[in-house]
């Protein structure tokens, strides 16, 4: 009987220890859970404040007139302005240098042909036994002037003459829609020069790129 009483007391003591341990564990779990909830709530408040700050900042960038972000709009306007300035600079071409012809040059200007006698004298001897040269200047108004240097050549061994033509476009600027004249692209070699009164032009004949090329109109009065 005495032993039974002792056994019961031991079991009762063990039970109390177990209950006490369970109570402490439950309190620790509750405290940990409370801490996690507190941290989560604090993080949500921080994120909320950050979002509100960003929204406020974005709202301050909105242009009330255009309804667009002023920061992005400013950058876009700057890019457009920069692009426009670049195009404007490209469109502003350097003015052509004025060409002043010499007294003995054949000049076509405002339907007047100056030094026509020099042109016709060259036409008679070009390709013959001897060499001579002339310069032809054609005034094309705002586009500038076209220049042609004509040089008569003769090969005594072959007994053959020809005319070398050197187009000079350094004082000329073609318009954007102008059809390119291949005659002016490089040096030409022509057989002779003629006066076609039927068509009304002085012509270069048997050239490298043209069978005949209208060089100048025939004008009766010398300007």
UniProtKB/TrEMBL annotation:
<feature type="compositionally biased region" description="Polar residues">
    <location>
        <begin position="41"/>
        <end position="50"/>
    </location>
</feature>
<keyword id="KW-0732">Signal</keyword>
<feature type="region of interest" description="Disordered">
    <location>
        <begin position="41"/>
        <end position="101"/>
    </location>
</feature>
<feature type="signal peptide">
    <location>
        <begin position="1"/>
        <end position="31"/>
    </location>
</feature>
<feature type="compositionally biased region" description="Polar residues">
    <location>
        <begin position="57"/>
        <end position="77"/>
    </location>
</feature>
<protein>
    <recommendedName>
        <fullName>DUF4362 domain-containing protein</fullName>
    </recommendedName>
</protein>
<feature type="compositionally biased region" description="Acidic residues">
    <location>
        <begin position="90"/>
        <end position="101"/>
    </location>
</feature>
């Amino acid at each position: 009987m005495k032993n039974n009483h002792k056994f019961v007391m031991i079991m009762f003591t063990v039970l109390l220890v177990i209950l006490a341990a369970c109570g402490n564990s439950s309190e620790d779990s509750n405290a940990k859970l409370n801490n996690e909830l507190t941290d989560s709530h604090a993080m949500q408040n921080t994120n909320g404040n950050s979002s509100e700050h960003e929204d406020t900042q974005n709202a301050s960038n909105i242009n009330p007139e255009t309804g667009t972000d002023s920061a992005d709009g400013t950058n876009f306007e700057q890019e457009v302005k920069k692009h426009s300035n670049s195009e404007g600079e490209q469109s502003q071409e350097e003015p052509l240098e004025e060409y002043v012809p010499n007294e003995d040059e054949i000049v076509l200007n405002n339907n007047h042909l100056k030094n026509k006698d020099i042109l016709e004298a060259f036409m008679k001897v070009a390709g013959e036994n001897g060499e001579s040269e002339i310069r032809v200047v054609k005034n094309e108004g705002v586009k500038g002037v076209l220049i042609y240097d004509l040089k008569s050549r003769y090969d005594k061994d072959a007994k053959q003459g020809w005319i070398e033509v050197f187009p000079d476009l350094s004082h000329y600027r073609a318009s954007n829609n102008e059809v390119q004249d291949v005659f002016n692209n490089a040096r030409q070699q022509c057989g002779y020069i003629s006066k076609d009164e039927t068509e009304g032009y002085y012509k270069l004949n048997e050239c490298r790129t043209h069978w005949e090329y209208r060089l100048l109109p025939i004008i009766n009065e010398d300007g």
